[in-house]
Design goal:
Oligomer: heterodimer
Radius of gyration of chain B: 17 Å
Helix content of chain B: 10-25%
Order of helices and strands of chain B: HEHEHEEHEEEHE
CATH superfamily of the largest domain in chain A: Aspartate/ornithine carbamoyltransferase
Structural class of chain A: alpha/beta
CATH topology of the largest domain in chain A: Rossmann fold
Distance between the termini of chain B: 8 Å
Distance between the termini of chain A: 14 Å
CATH class of the domain at 38-182 in chain B: Alpha Beta
Structural class of chain B: alpha/beta
CATH class of the largest domain in chain A: Alpha Beta
Mean pLDDT of chain A: 94
Largest sheet of chain B: 5 strands, parallel
Largest sheet of chain A: 5 strands, parallel
Number of helices of chain B: 5
Strand order of the largest sheet of chain A: 7-6-5-8-9
Largest interface: A-B, 23 and 19 residues
Radius of gyration of chain A: 19 Å
Amino acid sequence: MNRHLISAGDLSLDDALLILDTADELDLVAERPVKKLPTLRGRTVVNLFYEDSTRTRISFEAAAKRLSADVINFSARGSSVAKGESLKDTALTLEAMGADAVVIRHGASGAPQRLAGWVRGSVVNAGDGAHEHPTQALLDAFTMRRRLGRLDGLHVLIVGDVLHSRVARSNVLLLSTLGAEVTLVAPPTLLPVAVGGWPCSVGYDLDAALPKADVVMMLRVQQERMNAAYFPTVREYSRRYGLDADRMALLPEHGIVMHPGPMNRGVEIAAEVADSVRSTIVEQVANGVSVRMAVLYLLLGGSGGR
Amino acid sequence: MHAANQGERGPRPGGPRLTPRRDAPRRGEEQRKTVLEPAEIRRALTRIAHEILERTNGAADVVLLGIPTRGVPLAQRLAERLEQVEGRPVPAGSLDITMYRDDLRLRPARALGHTEVPTAGIDGRIVVLVDDVLYSGRTVRAALDALGELGRPRAVQLAVLIDRGHRELPIRADYVGKNLPTSQREMVRVLLTEVDGEDAVLLSASPAEREGS
């Protein structure tokens, strides 16, 4: 494995399977009375969050703590970043504090890549702009494998706001490595221009695509990032691309519904769908901790770290 | 795991280049000596099973935990023998110790083995750890740490197929299949049908670079 995890596209099939298999074993730790392993004792993991996040930050924090690492949480708000400190100066500060790994979330695509050039420790991308969110893709793949028993040959639909979604990009890259077939379904305005180069197919009709999908992953409509009119009204979007109970009934019997969260209930996913037995949304959160433990262990646990 | 049992890699300056691989025994490796034949392994395990029965009052509260990779099939075989003699099943499982090793930082992060504790748990029971080779004792130390986080056994005992000496920690085995005096340059390899397709214990001269086990 590389020293950093910046893009899901950097993972080879062997790397990806190693992470998933390791996560499978580490998942058992969650069931034990003592949910702790001594493996990263004395190592420092910094959570560097320039954007708000609850589940990802908490998930990384829980993962690092279960491995006995020391965790420093750093959020841009209320720190020297608010006073205008640059990413590089912040990075050098972290470096001076001896961070073995930096988990970074940043609004600008490519920030983790830049950071990786400045620090000696490992950099883990926890979401950069509309670029990538590789650990989310890993936990999604992990959840699919848990529920459906395999990844190779699975038909996965990713539906909705692909344009603003780092989750979609990471998932497309990772799932294609793992042998799944991905189809993006979205209004043309919410697809990136370069989507033709992604290893997936593209469709515009959700109802037509659902019957042969093993997995349907609904993306959040990221209204906070939308500075133009991408669709006429939320209601119209929801009618054409939202997943309600009637649409869910089109899925094959074993089909599952995923959502990276946070959800806009009633927009891209109906409340009854989100709470149905087919929905893996809560599982995804639990699996996130195991997958992030696996990533931190594989990056920091051996001599590859610092 | 257990690379040390098999000896490890890298040519010794001046010596013949020999890179022993653990999973695929190479034909024509120099000076390889068979220490135990399949029948001897069978007899050793049967004897260990009887010793366990004697020392634990019929294995009433015994849980066997094999240390991956080759401790696991050994624990299964011991469990079968205990059941044959006592007529009731003895729980057997596996205990991966990778996350508790003291040499993790010396090598790239390794894949984890599988931990499976029998549903009855280990609290208040006699846990018999099972491994193929006892060498430095570091694997067993890691296993004791791992065990402590899974529960509180009444007692912990250790069964190994081969004790090759050279302990680096105050640890000894309760049940030993064969004591095998070795030099640290030598390499002991245990092959088991479940993992390697055949049963044998081999001893060969090797440019073994020491490493914990």
